[in-house]
Amino acid sequence: MGARVLVAEDDPDTAEYVLKGLREEGYTVEHVADGRDALYLASSSSFDAILMDRMMPGMDGLSVLKALRAANVDTPLLILSALGQLDERLNGLRAGGDDYLTKPFAFAELSARLSNLMRRRGGRGADTVLRCGELEMNLLTRRVSRSGRAIDLLPREFKLLEHLLRNKDRVVTRTMLLEQVWDYRFDPHTSLIDTHISRLRKKIDEGFERPMLHTHRGAGYRLSERA
Protein backbone atom coordinates (compact mmCIF):
# COMPACT_ATOMS: atom_id res chain seq x y z
CA MET A 1 0.00 0.00 0.00
CA GLY A 2 1.13 3.50 -0.76
CA ALA A 3 0.81 6.72 1.20
CA ARG A 4 -2.55 7.28 2.94
CA VAL A 5 -4.57 10.23 1.70
CA LEU A 6 -7.83 11.57 3.15
CA VAL A 7 -10.12 13.10 0.51
CA ALA A 8 -12.83 15.36 1.95
CA GLU A 9 -15.09 16.23 -0.98
CA ASP A 10 -18.89 16.34 -1.11
CA ASP A 11 -19.35 16.58 -4.89
CA PRO A 12 -19.82 12.97 -6.12
CA ASP A 13 -18.34 13.55 -9.59
CA THR A 14 -15.23 15.34 -8.29
CA ALA A 15 -14.76 12.74 -5.57
CA GLU A 16 -15.01 9.86 -8.04
CA TYR A 17 -12.54 11.57 -10.39
CA VAL A 18 -9.99 12.18 -7.63
CA LEU A 19 -10.39 8.81 -5.89
CA LYS A 20 -10.01 6.87 -9.13
CA GLY A 21 -6.86 8.78 -10.10
CA LEU A 22 -5.21 8.47 -6.70
CA ARG A 23 -5.90 4.75 -6.42
CA GLU A 24 -4.49 4.17 -9.90
CA GLU A 25 -1.30 5.90 -8.71
CA GLY A 26 -1.03 3.53 -5.74
CA TYR A 27 -2.35 5.70 -2.93
CA THR A 28 -4.47 4.26 -0.12
CA VAL A 29 -7.46 6.59 -0.01
CA GLU A 30 -10.20 7.34 2.51
CA HIS A 31 -13.17 9.48 1.43
CA VAL A 32 -15.65 11.55 3.43
CA ALA A 33 -18.28 13.99 2.20
CA ASP A 34 -18.97 15.88 5.44
CA GLY A 35 -16.76 18.33 7.31
CA ARG A 36 -17.39 16.80 10.72
CA ASP A 37 -16.41 13.36 9.42
CA ALA A 38 -13.26 14.89 7.94
CA LEU A 39 -12.32 16.44 11.29
CA TYR A 40 -12.92 13.18 13.15
CA LEU A 41 -10.89 11.03 10.76
CA ALA A 42 -8.03 13.51 10.36
CA SER A 43 -7.79 13.87 14.15
CA SER A 44 -8.07 10.21 15.08
CA SER A 45 -6.08 8.47 12.37
CA SER A 46 -2.76 8.90 10.61
CA PHE A 47 -2.63 10.26 7.04
CA ASP A 48 0.23 11.34 4.82
CA ALA A 49 -1.83 14.12 3.21
CA ILE A 50 -5.32 15.60 3.15
CA LEU A 51 -7.28 16.98 0.19
CA MET A 52 -9.95 19.29 1.63
CA ASP A 53 -12.89 20.80 -0.25
CA ARG A 54 -13.52 24.43 0.72
CA MET A 55 -17.32 24.12 0.98
CA MET A 56 -18.82 21.04 2.65
CA PRO A 57 -21.95 20.21 4.67
CA GLY A 58 -21.66 19.83 8.41
CA MET A 59 -18.55 21.98 8.70
CA ASP A 60 -16.78 24.00 6.02
CA GLY A 61 -13.25 23.15 4.96
CA LEU A 62 -11.58 26.20 6.50
CA SER A 63 -13.20 25.53 9.88
CA VAL A 64 -11.98 21.93 9.73
CA LEU A 65 -8.51 23.14 8.81
CA LYS A 66 -8.36 25.66 11.66
CA ALA A 67 -9.54 23.02 14.15
CA LEU A 68 -6.89 20.57 12.97
CA ARG A 69 -4.08 23.12 13.26
CA ALA A 70 -5.32 24.18 16.69
CA ALA A 71 -5.09 20.53 17.73
CA ASN A 72 -1.49 20.37 16.41
CA VAL A 73 -2.40 18.06 13.52
CA ASP A 74 0.22 19.10 10.97
CA THR A 75 -0.66 16.70 8.12
CA PRO A 76 0.05 18.37 4.74
CA LEU A 77 -3.23 19.74 3.42
CA LEU A 78 -4.27 20.85 -0.06
CA ILE A 79 -7.43 22.95 -0.31
CA LEU A 80 -9.73 22.29 -3.29
CA SER A 81 -12.12 25.12 -4.11
CA ALA A 82 -14.24 26.69 -6.83
CA LEU A 83 -13.41 30.03 -5.18
CA GLY A 84 -10.29 31.18 -6.96
CA GLN A 85 -10.11 34.84 -5.99
CA LEU A 86 -6.86 36.02 -4.42
CA ASP A 87 -8.52 36.78 -1.07
CA GLU A 88 -9.96 33.26 -0.89
CA ARG A 89 -6.61 31.67 -1.67
CA LEU A 90 -4.88 33.81 0.95
CA ASN A 91 -7.55 32.95 3.54
CA GLY A 92 -6.95 29.26 2.92
CA LEU A 93 -3.20 29.57 3.28
CA ARG A 94 -3.43 31.78 6.35
CA ALA A 95 -5.76 29.23 8.00
CA GLY A 96 -2.97 26.67 7.78
CA GLY A 97 -3.39 25.17 4.32
CA ASP A 98 -0.19 24.13 2.55
CA ASP A 99 -1.47 24.67 -0.99
CA TYR A 100 -4.61 25.79 -2.82
CA LEU A 101 -5.99 24.34 -6.07
CA THR A 102 -8.89 25.96 -7.91
CA LYS A 103 -11.63 23.88 -9.54
CA PRO A 104 -11.89 22.67 -12.21
CA PHE A 105 -8.42 21.17 -12.27
CA ALA A 106 -6.49 18.54 -14.20
CA PHE A 107 -5.66 15.43 -12.21
CA ALA A 108 -2.04 15.66 -13.35
CA GLU A 109 -1.71 19.00 -11.55
CA LEU A 110 -3.41 17.65 -8.43
CA SER A 111 -1.04 14.68 -8.40
CA ALA A 112 2.04 16.88 -8.83
CA ARG A 113 0.96 19.26 -6.04
CA LEU A 114 0.23 16.34 -3.72
CA SER A 115 3.65 14.81 -4.34
CA ASN A 116 5.35 18.16 -3.72
CA LEU A 117 3.44 18.64 -0.47
CA MET A 118 4.60 15.34 0.99
CA ARG A 119 8.15 15.82 -0.27
CA ARG A 120 8.39 19.28 1.33
CA ARG A 121 7.13 17.89 4.63
CA GLY A 122 9.95 15.40 4.87
CA GLY A 123 8.64 12.73 2.57
CA ARG A 124 6.53 10.83 5.06
CA GLY A 125 4.50 9.61 2.12
CA ALA A 126 7.64 8.16 0.56
CA ASP A 127 8.22 5.85 3.52
CA THR A 128 7.96 2.23 2.44
CA VAL A 129 8.83 0.60 5.78
CA LEU A 130 6.81 0.84 8.99
CA ARG A 131 8.45 -0.16 12.28
CA CYS A 132 7.64 -0.65 15.92
CA GLY A 133 10.71 -1.83 17.74
CA GLU A 134 11.78 -5.17 16.30
CA LEU A 135 8.58 -5.50 14.24
CA GLU A 136 8.92 -4.34 10.62
CA MET A 137 6.56 -4.09 7.64
CA ASN A 138 7.76 -3.38 4.08
CA LEU A 139 4.87 -1.86 2.13
CA LEU A 140 6.46 -2.53 -1.27
CA THR A 141 7.45 -6.18 -0.83
CA ARG A 142 4.62 -6.79 1.69
CA ARG A 143 7.13 -8.60 3.90
CA VAL A 144 6.54 -8.56 7.65
CA SER A 145 9.16 -9.69 10.15
CA ARG A 146 10.01 -9.53 13.83
CA SER A 147 13.65 -9.75 14.85
CA GLY A 148 14.38 -10.93 11.31
CA ARG A 149 11.87 -13.79 11.46
CA ALA A 150 9.38 -13.66 8.59
CA ILE A 151 5.67 -13.48 9.51
CA ASP A 152 3.10 -14.70 6.99
CA LEU A 153 -0.09 -12.61 7.06
CA LEU A 154 -3.37 -12.85 5.20
CA PRO A 155 -4.44 -9.67 3.31
CA ARG A 156 -6.85 -8.52 6.04
CA GLU A 157 -4.28 -9.23 8.76
CA PHE A 158 -1.73 -7.20 6.80
CA LYS A 159 -4.12 -4.25 6.56
CA LEU A 160 -4.95 -4.52 10.26
CA LEU A 161 -1.29 -4.56 11.26
CA GLU A 162 -0.52 -1.65 8.92
CA HIS A 163 -3.17 0.45 10.64
CA LEU A 164 -1.83 -0.46 14.07
CA LEU A 165 1.75 0.34 13.00
CA ARG A 166 0.70 3.73 11.63
CA ASN A 167 -0.85 4.43 15.05
CA LYS A 168 1.80 2.73 17.21
CA ASP A 169 1.79 3.57 20.92
CA ARG A 170 -1.79 4.85 20.59
CA VAL A 171 -5.01 3.08 21.51
CA VAL A 172 -7.03 2.33 18.37
CA THR A 173 -10.77 1.90 18.99
CA ARG A 174 -13.04 -0.75 17.51
CA THR A 175 -14.88 1.95 15.57
CA MET A 176 -11.64 3.15 14.00
CA LEU A 177 -10.70 -0.40 13.00
CA LEU A 178 -14.14 -1.11 11.54
CA GLU A 179 -13.98 2.07 9.45
CA GLN A 180 -10.34 1.93 8.40
CA VAL A 181 -9.73 -1.80 7.98
CA TRP A 182 -13.16 -3.17 7.08
CA ASP A 183 -14.81 0.01 5.69
CA TYR A 184 -17.84 -0.53 7.94
CA ARG A 185 -19.78 2.55 9.04
CA PHE A 186 -21.58 0.55 11.74
CA ASP A 187 -20.69 -2.08 14.32
CA PRO A 188 -22.00 -5.50 13.18
CA HIS A 189 -21.77 -6.70 16.82
CA THR A 190 -19.82 -9.81 15.92
CA SER A 191 -16.49 -11.25 17.02
CA LEU A 192 -14.96 -10.06 13.73
CA ILE A 193 -12.33 -7.78 15.28
CA ASP A 194 -11.61 -10.03 18.27
CA THR A 195 -10.99 -12.98 15.95
CA HIS A 196 -8.57 -11.10 13.71
CA ILE A 197 -6.75 -9.50 16.66
CA SER A 198 -6.34 -12.92 18.26
CA ARG A 199 -4.88 -14.39 15.06
CA LEU A 200 -2.60 -11.42 14.53
CA ARG A 201 -1.37 -11.51 18.13
CA LYS A 202 -0.51 -15.17 17.80
CA LYS A 203 1.52 -14.49 14.66
CA ILE A 204 3.51 -11.48 15.89
CA ASP A 205 3.89 -12.32 19.61
CA GLU A 206 4.10 -16.12 19.87
CA GLY A 207 7.62 -17.27 20.64
CA PHE A 208 8.78 -13.85 21.85
CA GLU A 209 9.31 -12.89 25.48
CA ARG A 210 7.67 -9.47 25.23
CA PRO A 211 4.14 -9.03 23.77
CA MET A 212 3.56 -6.07 21.47
CA LEU A 213 -0.18 -6.21 20.74
CA HIS A 214 -2.08 -5.06 23.83
CA THR A 215 -5.80 -5.05 24.60
CA HIS A 216 -7.29 -2.13 26.54
CA ARG A 217 -10.65 -3.43 27.72
CA GLY A 218 -13.49 -1.11 26.87
CA ALA A 219 -11.18 1.12 24.82
CA GLY A 220 -9.43 -0.75 22.03
CA TYR A 221 -6.01 -2.06 21.04
CA ARG A 222 -2.47 -0.71 21.07
CA LEU A 223 0.69 -1.83 19.28
CA SER A 224 3.71 -0.91 21.36
CA GLU A 225 6.99 -2.15 22.79
CA ARG A 226 5.83 -0.86 26.15
CA ALA A 227 3.61 -2.99 28.37
Description:
The protein folds into two domains: 4-126, Response regulator (Rossmann fold); 129-223, Arc Repressor Mutant, subunit A (Orthogonal Bundle), CATH 1.10.10. The protein is 39% helix and 21% strand. The protein is built from eight helices and eleven strands. It has helices at 12-24, 35-44, 61-70, 86-94, 107-120, 155-166, 174-180, 192-205, and strands at residues 4-8, 28-32, 49-53, 77-81, 99-102, 129-132, 135-138, 143-146, 149-151, 213-216, 220-223. A five-stranded parallel sheet has the order 2-1-3-4-5, with helices on both faces. Strands 6-7-8-9 form a four-stranded antiparallel sheet, with helices on one face. A hairpin with a 2-residue loop joins strand 8 and strand 9 (149-151). Helix 6 packs across helix 8 (192-205). The chain is elongated, with a radius of gyration of 19 Å. The relative contact order is 0.11.
